[in-house]
Structure formats: structure tokens, C-alpha cells
Amino acid sequence: QPDATTSGKATFSDFISAVEVTPSFTKNDAPNSTASRPEGQHPTKDTAAKNTAKKTTSFAGLFCSNRKLIEENKLSKFAVDDGPLTLGPSDVLDVRSKLGFCLVGYIAGKFPGLKVIHALSQSWGSSFQQHESGWLIFCFAREEDRQRILADGPYFVYGRLLLLKHMPDCFEFKEDDISLTPVWATLPSLPLECWHPNALGKIGSRVGSPIAMDSLTMKMERVSYARILVEVDSSKKLVDQVEFVMPNGITRKQPVVYEFTPKFCTDCHRFDHL
């Protein structure tokens, strides 16, 4: 029986049509061009003054409203000692309440441009932000939407792999985190008794950090293999077999087959050139 969960992954062609293209002006169409002005007519003083005002506005001035001091953004003074600060649960934000259910992503290779990523984000129904480190943040209003997008991967943007994963708690947006990526793994001929979430979770924990099983595994509608989504460290050798003892006392050496394994360079911590 075909695996229904793999139907929407692999290409980006469905999203490209949503990309907004910047208009290209001819000389006669260009705003404020001399060609659009009657011959011999010069700019008025008011027009010149407006142009001068635009030129003298500083970059910081464009965001001056962001720096207004209001009651809601005031900070308090705390008594602190000379040692490292300790932040407790009451000192930190619940990011989910502010941003929603987030995935973080990274483009393996040359960045394709913000318009393309915005188009992808809109097609997913998510909001989008970019961190200066290169990490991308996709925020969803519902957990099921986040899980669906993660499960439908991997995604390629103009042939470049988009690595996606749940945003970890206290995520620091470091380059070292790039090697941790979710992959689908299949467990061929796994005994049906072992399709319990606990058994799959324990097997997945030997492989990496288990995230979920696919819907056909959950419903037991494709009995040839179980399929699980696991976050693995691509900088290390992937586990290809898990040995465990079943309730009947028989030891089984379970093969683990990965549907897609991104090639990670351990020397320069990049995916794009292998």
C-alpha cells in the first residue's frame, strides 16, 4: 500500500508561483523621473523640500517608535551578586504564548532570498522571522500544523535542503546545532506487538531523539514496516541496527533504514558541499 505521508515532500515548485516579483520600471514609468515631467518644467520648492527631508532621515529614525518608553516595557532593578546569574522559571518567557508553535530551519547552501522563504511560509500558513545567524523561525498557530509540516519533509528550496526541527527550549541559534536534524527511519518487519508507542519510543531513543510515528504506523495500515521520525546527529555515524529482547524472551536485531540522510561535513560544519 503506498505511503500517504510522503506525497507532499521533495520539491518547491508548488510554492514558486506565490513569490512576489518586484516590478521593473522603464524610464518613462519610473516615479519622479525627468521623462515624466513636461519639457522645461522644474521641480517645485515643495517637492525639493520633501526630497531633502527624505534624504536627511536617519536609519535609526525609521525605528524611533520602537524606543518609546511606556509602562509595559519598563525594567526593574534587582539585587545581584558577583557570581553567575541564575534565571528561574518566573524569569523567562513562555515563547509559545508569544510566537506560537515554532519550527527552526536552516538552508544548506546559498540562501535563496527572503521573498522565496516568505512565499514558502505563507503556503504553510505560518509567520516567519530570520535570525542574523542564518536560522529561520516558522511560527504556527496550531501544534497539528507544525507537526504536519515537519512530517511532510524533507524540503528542498531551489535544490537546497531546508533543515527543519522543533525549536528547542532556550535555543541559542548556534552553528553547532545545525547537525541535529529530523529524519524518517523505517523498521522493516518489526513484530506487530512492538508497534506500541513505548516500544517505538525506546527503539527510537537508541537511534536519536524520537519525535513521532507516521499515521499508517499508528493505525497499523501498512504492516511491512514501522516508520518513525527521529532527530539524529548528522555529524556522527548513524545507528543501523537496534538489539532488544522481546516479551517472549527472544532477542531481535532490528535493522534501521533511513529514507534520507543529509551529508554533513564535520570539518567545516556545513551540508552544502558534500
Protein described:
With 274 residues, the protein is an alpha+beta fold. Among the domains are: 94-173, RRM (RNA recognition motif) domain (Alpha-Beta Plaits, 2-Layer Sandwich), CATH 3.30.70.330; 179-258. The protein contains seven helices and eleven strands. The chain has helices at residues 13-16, 45-56, 95-99, 114-124, 143-151, 197-207, 215-219, and strands spanning 101-107, 127-130, 136-140, 155-157, 160-166, 180-188, 209-213, 225-233, 241-245, 251-255, 257-258. It has a five-stranded antiparallel β-sheet. A four-stranded antiparallel β-sheet has the order 7-8-6-11. β9 and β10 form a beta hairpin. The protein is globular.
β-strand number: 11
Main sheet properties: 5 strands, antiparallel
What is the H level of CATH, i.e. the homologous superfamily of the domain at 94-173? RRM (RNA recognition motif) domain
Strand content: 15-25%
Write down the overall geometry: globular
Name the helix and strand elements from N-terminus to C-terminus, one letter apiece: HHHEHEEHEEEHEHEEEE
> In the CATH scheme, what's the topology name of the domain at 94-173?
Alpha-Beta Plaits
Global Rg = 26 Å
Label the structural class. alpha+beta
Terminal-residue CA separation: 34 Å
Binned, the helix content reads 10-25%
- Spatial strand sequence of the major β-sheet: 2-3-1-5-4
Average pLDDT works out at 77
Name of the CATH architecture of the domain at 94-173:
2-Layer Sandwich
Number of helices: 7
* CATH class annotation of the domain at 94-173: Alpha Beta
- Provide the low-confidence segments as ranges: 4-38
